[in-house]
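Work Package 4 report. The design task specified in the project plan requires that, given a folded chain encoded as structure tokens, an amino acid be chosen for each position. We show below one input record used in the internal validation round.
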């Protein structure tokens, strides 16, 4: 049975909340970005004011209560909602692993050099890792992979191609030879020349990556991914092109990009827009909150009216677990909320369980979903 926020607030007032439910109410109260009141009727405001939780006075003074009430009303009508961050600990401190649980992902990846040599980046010492032509590949103290240019290559020199791949449960940050920064999400890869000596800078990506492209006049940057290519000059954008996702999403945060489908259809994006490419090679452009698209880069899961199958694909990749959706593999049940990606798998699943009539069982890195 789905537990609504209205029911949780009643349980909070009567002292009947479980520790997990209490954490939902109190951490939501502290951290939620509160909307305005224009969508609420007077009747709704009166009803929600009667549900006011007995939060400590010190906490309550951080936000006007009427704004909190407005937020509750919006969330109750939006479907399942959860939000959980540790209020007293850092995101990335070590986490104890409980039975039938899974640790979050971490910084790990494999670098494949032009000669086929593979380097496990999480095991490599900081400093110079290899040399490709005149380019020195360096691992910095924070784990970042950096390409340091030496002598310039001539345009007719054969390009040396490298690939960085993250496993499920991994992520990585690298800086290309032109200064472009790339963040890779779990189960992703990027293939690129160690230096750009032609009329264009071209890379190929599978999975998900966030790009901050260095400006170079006369040398556009091109990203090739599932079913499309993206042409940019200097910009910040995210591309989600996992093979198991039904669509490919390109989200622009800064600058301008042109997204061109393999079938020929194209669209130019403005900041705050997202191009959605479907399996019919059709592009739809919509405005979204760009921060939702790069939640993974900031260390969070942020969901806005996402279905359970959508969420579980992200969970599967980050925690390196398999999921048996059962009859939920086509579920239209939606969730909105936020939880840190540094939390154990069990915390994420408890937040989901608290907002809908589902039960998760974890055993041997396998999640089974059933009715509560």
């Amino acid at each position: 049975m789905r537990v609504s926020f209205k029911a949780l607030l009643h349980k909070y007032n009567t002292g009947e909340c479980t520790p997990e439910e209490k954490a939902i109410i109190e951490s939501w109260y502290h951290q939620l970005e509160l909307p305005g009141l224009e969508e609420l009727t007077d009747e709704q405001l009166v009803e929600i004011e009667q549900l006011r939780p007995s939060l400590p006075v010190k906490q309550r003074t951080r936000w006007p209560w009427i704004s909190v009430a407005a937020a509750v009303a919006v969330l109750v009508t939006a479907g399942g909602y959860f939000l959980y961050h540790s209020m007293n600990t850092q995101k990335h401190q070590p986490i104890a692993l409980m039975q039938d649980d899974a640790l979050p992902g971490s910084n790990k990846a494999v670098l494949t050099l032009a000669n086929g040599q593979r380097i496990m980046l999480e095991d490599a010492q900081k400093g110079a890792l290899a040399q490709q032509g005149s380019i020195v590949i360096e691992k910095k103290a924070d784990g970042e992979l950096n390409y340091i240019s030496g002598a310039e290559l001539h345009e007719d020199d054969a390009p040396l191609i490298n690939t960085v791949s993250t496993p499920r449960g991994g992520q990585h940050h690298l800086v290309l030879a032109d200064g472009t920064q790339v963040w890779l999400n779990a189960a992703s890869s990027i293939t690129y020349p160690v230096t750009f000596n032609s009329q264009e800078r071209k890379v190929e990506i599978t999975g998900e990556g966030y790009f901050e492209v260095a400006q170079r006049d006369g040398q556009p940057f091109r990203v090739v991914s599932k079913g499309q290519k993206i042409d940019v000059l200097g910009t910040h954008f995210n591309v989600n092109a996992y093979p198991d996702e039904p669509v490919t999403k390109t989200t622009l945060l800064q600058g301008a990009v042109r997204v061109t489908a393999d079938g020929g259809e194209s669209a130019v994006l403005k900041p705050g827009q997202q191009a959605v490419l479907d399996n019919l090679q059709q592009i739809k452009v919509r405005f979204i909150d760009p921060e939702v698209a790069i939640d993974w880069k900031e260390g969070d899961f942020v969901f806005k009216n996402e279905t359970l199958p959508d969420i579980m694909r992200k969970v599967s990749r980050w925690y390196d677990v398999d999921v048996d959706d059962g009859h939920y593999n086509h579920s239209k049940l939606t969730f909105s909320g936020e939880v840190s990606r540094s939390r154990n798998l069990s915390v994420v699943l408890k937040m989901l369980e608290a907002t809908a009539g589902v039960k998760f069982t974890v055993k041997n890195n396998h999640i089974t979903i059933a009715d509560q």
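The chain has eight helices and 25 strands. Validation will be extended to a larger panel in the next phase.
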